[in-house]
Structures are given as structure tokens and as C-alpha cells.
Write a structure and sequence with these properties.
The chain has 71 residues and is α/β, with parallel strands linked by helices. The protein has one domain: 3-Layer(aba) Sandwich (Rossmann fold). Helix content is 31%, strand content 23%. It has helices spanning 17-27, 38-43, 66-70; strands at residues 8-12, 31-36, 56-60. A 3-stranded parallel sheet has the order 1-2-3. The radius of gyration is 12 Å and the shape is globular.
Length: 71
């Protein structure tokens, strides 16, 4: 299902062109895992992320905390 099938990509700090690039890579078959900070994940509404958020899994993690890094 695309030339990037089997490739896993972590998307960190998804704003602007990062989300667009992730969308394109997902369309080519890559598995996209979007890592959002808890406060940023609340800011993203389903309407603003409807097109660019397709084909990705989202995880809320605070990578500054030990528990977030361990996850």
C-alpha cells in the first residue's frame, strides 16, 4: 500500500509544514505517530486537523518528564 509501507515515522512538534509532510508520508504508506505535548494537543481542533491529521496515530506525552520519556 505504498512505497513507504513498513516505515515508522515519529512526528514531533507538528505545526505547519510538519503536519503536511506527515500527511504526505502517510499517503505513501508510512506509519505516522504524532507525539504532541499535552497542552498543544488540546489546542488542535478536529476541524483544523481534519485534512492534515489523516493516516496517523496521536500520542500525548510530556517528554520533559521522566514518565513521558519512559513511555
Amino acid at each position: 500500500m505504498g512505497p513507504l509501507r513498513g516505515v515508522r515515522i515519529l512526528e514531533l512538534g507538528g505545526r505547519g509544514p510538519v503536519r503536511f509532510c506527515g500527511m504526505l508520508l502517510g499517503d505513501l504508506g508510512a506509519e505516522i505517530i504524532s507525539v504532541d505535548r499535552p497542552r498543544e494537543a488540546d489546542d488542535i481542533t478536529p476541524l483544523s486537523d481534519a485534512g492534515l491529521g489523516r493516516r496517523r496515530r496521536r500520542v500525548r506525552l510530556d517528554l520533559r518528564s521522566a514518565a513521558g520519556r519512559a513511555t
